[in-house]
Amino acid sequence: MFLKISDLATAAGVDEKIVLNWIKQRGLPAHKQDDRYRVNRIDLLEWATTHDITLPPEIFSINDEHPDRPLVSEALLNGGIFYDLPGNTPETALHEVVYRLKLPPSLDPEFLLQTLLAREALGSTAFGNGIAIPHVRNPILGQTSDSSISLCFLKNPIDFNAIDGKPVTTLFTLVTPNVKVHLNLLAKLAFLLHDDGFLKLLHIPGAKSDIMLTIRRLEETNVRR
Questions:
Q1: Residue 194 is a catalytic residue
Q2: Pairing, β 131-132 against β 126-128
Q3: What is the CATH number of the domain that holds 94?
Q4: Residues 46, 77 within the same domain
Q5: For every residue of the chain, which 3-state class applies, written as one string?
Q6: Nearest CA to 132 among 154, 110, 112, 147?
Q7: What CATH number does the domain containing 45 carry?
Q8: Are both 80 and 145 inside the same structural domain?
Q9: Does the residue 184 lie in any domain?
Q10: Same domain membership, residue 82 and residue 136
Q11: What is the pLDDT along the chain (225 residues), one digit of tens a residue?
């Protein structure tokens, strides 16, 4: 789950000094082991997402196992796309999101809601540009066998304490079965959200068919399983 500075620099295509700057000046969480920094993949992904830094999804792959790795388009079909979601605060909006998710009987929606709110309390999940990606920091293991992403367009812009100061109008919410799928799927979504055409479609907002078509096109050209 941890990356060495040299491996991170190589995968990101930057000098090791830049990675050290990310740690010392820009707040990238890192741990020292034998006087060498190590970066947890989950910490890296969340930090890169909130700091608008594009990293290839392959950085977040776990090479020792090969779990089923769904595409964003597949997970979005499971989770659904919703328009004019009511709410005036992160709490009320996430309540509306949770009760629209297709959850297994074993996963209590109130428990999931409180877990999402606890994650927001640790730090905003706002991606910037009016988009937030509410998710549990680690998936709720054993509660679901499928991965889903719900895309919700808010009726009213909401302050999610985004790093760019912009209110949020679009929410992507992830529910995944295990750490590896969670990490892989979140990385793919963050990567797709750096595409200008896709962002423009989210800000309109676009029709469901246009959104799915755009995601599949981007996955075919840019994202591997």
A1: no
A2: antiparallel
A3: 3.40.930.10
A4: no
A5: CEEEHHHHHHHHCCCHHHHHHHHHHCCCCCEEECCEEEEEHHHHHHHHHHCCCCCCHHHHCCCCCCCCCCCHHHHHHHHCEEEEECCCCHHHHHHHHHCCCCCCCCCCHHHHHHHHHHHHHHCCCEEECCEECCCCCCCCCCCCCCCEEEEEEEEEEECCCCCCCCCEEEEEEEECCCHHHHHHHHHHHHHHCCCHHHHHHHHCCCCHHHHHHHHHHHHHHHCCC
A6: 154
A7: 1.10.1660.10
A8: yes
A9: yes
A10: yes
A11: 678 888 888 878 889 999 999 998 888 888 887 788 988 877 787 788 767 777 776 676 655 444 467 899 999 999 999 999 999 999 999 999 999 988 878 788 998 899 899 888 888 888 888 999 988 766 654 456 788 899 999 999 999 998 889 999 999 998 888 777 888 888 889 889 889 999 999 999 999 999 999 999 999 887 655
Domain count for the chain:
2
- Written as six digits, the tokens of 138 are 């680690």
Q: Are residues 138 and 31 in the same domain?
A: no
Kindly state whether residue 156 falls inside one of the protein's structural domains.
yes
Segments forming the whole domain that contains residue 200? 72-222
Determine which one of 51, 95, 135, 203 is catalytic: 135
